[in-house]
Amino acid sequence: MVIVDRERPGRGSTAASTSMLLWEIDRSLTELTEAYGFERAVRAYRASLNAVTGLKSLVLQLGIACDMRNRDSLYLAAGDTGRELIEEHRLRERAGLPGDFLDHARLLETYGMTRAGAIVSSGAADADPMQLARGLLNISAGRGARLFDGEAVAFHPAGRAVGVVLANGREIEARSVVLATGYAMPDIVHSTVQTVSSSWAIATPPQPQNVWKDAALIWENSKDYLYARTTRAGRIIIGGEDSEDVIEPDARDRLIPEKSRLLAQKLTALWPVANTDIDFRWAGTFDTTRDGLPLIGPVPGQRGIYAAYGYGGNGITFSFMAAQLIGDLIAGATSPLLRDFALDRDGASIGD
Questions:
Q1: pLDDT in tens, 309-351
Q2: What does the alpha-carbon distance between residue 290 and residue 106 come to, in Å, rounded to a whole number?
Q3: With a threshold of 0.85, does the pTM exceed it?
Q4: How far is CA 308 from the centre of its chain?
Q5: Residues in CB range of 56: below 8 A, 6 or more apart
Q6: Which of 127, 173, 221, 311 has the fewest CB atoms within 10 Å of its CB?
Q7: Are 47 and 123 in contact (CB under 8 A)?
Q8: How many other C-beta atoms lie within 10 A of the C-beta of residue 205?
């Protein structure tokens, strides 16, 4: 196996990740059911749950030291009523997915948060994304994978092989090529459902005495949701303020001071006991899709070339899923998920 990366491994979106390993998808089960039907929606949710479970098992099996911790997720109502979450919980129960609904009183009593309601679910995790990525790369290298510093600029499927031309003029020939380059896909990859967005995040000083119950992963029932987690040292990481209008790196980074101030204010509103001093602040660009489902599978019209992107807020979860699906596909197996996640699908526009 050959891995080609134009940046130092981990220095792209990995370094900006808040590494909330949620199995819950950016679009609710209710929204996906309305768009695609219950069976397809549940298939995606169960696959995502299995991906988080599988990744945790793999990290344990390989002994990767990356601060991975089992966590509950706390899905907060963003409006004045918990009615949408009640319906969401009922649908998840029907699907056999884990979780309990907390009304305002139970949420306040259990977690000390003043929202109209929430769903608390088991099965999530968090981790150090750089340690996780480096650990997996080191093991791959130990098993014979070769890592090259280079940029692939052209792809030529021919016969049983694909020629990959690098910017330095050299060429790699492979039976299968997997494009896992995030939102920066080459011109041969097209999708009508993918969009690019930016997100901002801050990290507080360590304050283990101020961490909420069980250090649950927090996110909201809204399209551009606020999200928060803690680290082993007790830092609070909170992110959001997403924008599809500001994606150019310099313009995005110029907004870091303003966005950081807004995130600190939102942290105070969410968790008033927190020390909102900022030790670190950063921004990142990522891609998502209109329906919240990833883009995984063969590149139409390009024999032997596969792509995996459009992950939204589920980058690490969906990347594990993509590795399984594409690996199985190359080995001769298939899955209905490949139709659900097809690059050329005409995805539904949800929540607009």
A1: 999 989 999 999 999 999 999 999 999 999 999 999 987 666 5
A2: 33
A3: yes
A4: 12
A5: 21, 68, 70, 125
A6: 173
A7: no
A8: 14
